[in-house]
From TrEMBL:
The keyword Transmembrane applies. It is a multi-pass membrane protein. It holds the Pfam family MFS_1. GO terms for cellular component: plasma membrane. Residues 14-429 form the Major facilitator superfamily (MFS) profile domain. This is AAHS family benzoate transporter-like MFS transporter. It is found in: Cell membrane. The chain crosses the membrane at residues 50-70, 82-101, 107-127, 139-164, 170-189, 247-268, 288-308, 315-332, 338-362, 374-393, 405-424. The keyword Nucleus does not apply. It comes from Nocardia bhagyanarayanae.
Amino acid sequence: MGGSAPRKRSGLVVVMLCFLTIVADGYDLIVYGATVPSLLDEPGWELSASTAGLIGSWTLVGLMVGFLLAGPLADRIGRRKVMMAGVVWFSAGCAICAVATSPEFLGAARFFTGIGLGGVVPSAVALTMEFAPRNRRQIYNGMMLTGYSFGGVVAALVAIALLPDHSWRVLYAVGALCVIVVPAMYFWLPESVNSLVARGKDAEAAELALAYDLDIDAVRAEQRIQVDASTGADSTSGLRMLLTRRYLPSLLLFVLVCVCAQVITYGLNTWLPVLMREAGYPLGSSLQFLLVLQVGAIVGMIGGSMLADRYGSRRILVLFFLIGGVSLLALSRKLDTAVLMVAVAGAGLGSIGSSSLAYGYVAAKYPASCRGSAVGASMGLGRVGSILGPSIGGWVVGSSLGSHWNFYAFAIPAVIAAAIVVLMPASTVDDEVAEVRAPEPDPGGVVEPAR
């Protein structure tokens, strides 16, 4: 009598744990804005608005550093370790923010926290893609990345509940509680099967693949592609492999796409209420537009991911950027309320929604040994757009170009991003794996099965 079959585990557990870390990410990125009014009134600090803005920028600089460092590190030592270390890191950063004694102290703490925040995202994207069914990778990734929006909602609700009666320090102390996710990650978050194969731990990888019902032969075929592409370089060095002639050109295109997406995202998040007021709408409705923008972003993340699994990320990404560009052009004109709301939602879909879709496309484009490095580099270098976006918006608002250019300035990057995606080769690493595994006819016409 044979033994019972091993119990299968669901990749959704991986998605949920990665989602929780992104919720923590979203909370911390939004909580600073919620505490700025209280920080400006902090006794003895004499914090100016410009200094408060600078402190906020330091978080983004730390985030960029975290993206660039964590991707290659995750490719080398494993995604699971980097994710757990990142959660501990930014939880400690929140705790340090809660006891800051000066603006300089808080700025340094926010930079420190940003490194931890950036440390978890490339691994979360890579792990989600690797444990998802191959025909549902983008929807799993889209669901996971909605954690940013959920984290922002949690931050807003916590601020509403606690700030009226408590110090701003309490909000950062709440952020430090994110560390409670680490024990769950330790027991239930698996290491990447692809990473294990790349590091020569084939038996452990095969056992894990069986438990999660993953195609270990496809993973091994992907590893053969990686060894061929490395041209003699250390195949476990994700960053070195990423800089080869085979992968560097597409990486540069992805960085440009992410810069364009971040210009639109951060520009609109910063300036949309002002732009709509300049277009003649009252403040109340202008703030509602910001909410509609986020709704459009969530629809873009989920709906776009489902479409990408069915029709390919490249096609849907081009479509979404064009929808964003057309929506922004429409906003430059007076529209009926219903059409106006649809246009604002389209702008969110084409900016924030396109960003998440782009990250999933990056992960699908590159093999496992440089996947973390590719996602980290695209997100990290793409953060240049998060600096340019608010600056472009401020320059246009302060110029004499006219209110139409408030929207043209962000429609142009959307069209440029769509054009860049069109220039990219359509194939992904899955296409290369399928080609490697395809059966070849023998001279007698008999087809040998792929092994």
